[in-house]
Amino acid sequence: MRGSIYFHGFFERVFRHLKRQILEVFMRKYTKILVLLAVIFVVYPLFPAEELTFETICRHLAAYKNTTGEFTQIKTSALKKSLKSSGTFILTRDGVVWKTLKPVPSKIAIIDAYMITTDAKGKKTVKSMLNSDTFLKVNDIVSSLFAGNSAEINKNFKVNFKATSAEKWEALLVPKDKTISYAISSMNMKGTFVKGSVSIFMAEIYFADGGSLSYIFEHQKHPEKLTQEELDEFKKD
User: What pTM did the predictor assign?
Assistant: First the structure.
């Protein structure tokens, strides 16, 4: 019985010794690998999956079929007099609606080279802009900005893009085209890039006459389809 206990204790000590040696060999051999894996899993999440560039922003904006939200507009004249208004907006690949709610209700819808204005009394006016080269050019540019058409933007603007933080960006656009520079001296856009989702939260337009137009965009959504009520905002009749 004592011999059995002795041998049992002996094998137990041998097993512990071998287990310790095996563990030490494993740690010596794979420590560098384990450390490398730890660094990868800890550090990698600190870097975004995509590099924050103007092309990245445009690519994500182009994926949105529609964008809706609220806006605050500050219009400043060359004499530095400001007028503030606010409302809702709808941006699609085919047109845009700016619906002012304060201080005076009104609406401007632009679709198919037509400008549809509705005053506070509900009177609607439809005007063709087919003969206005400046309007068509500016409208195409504004549409390309929100649609993320990088080719069209780079064709018409010199773009100075920078990431102001890990999730925020800013782009200064200076017109190359004389038709645009006749009306606009520059445009500044600010936005976010969070978890693969892009949004423009501010746009500033500086006019050649010294005036400016600033927009703050909030509560943005990107629905696949517009509601019937939203579609009706584009109607000419």
Answer: 0.70
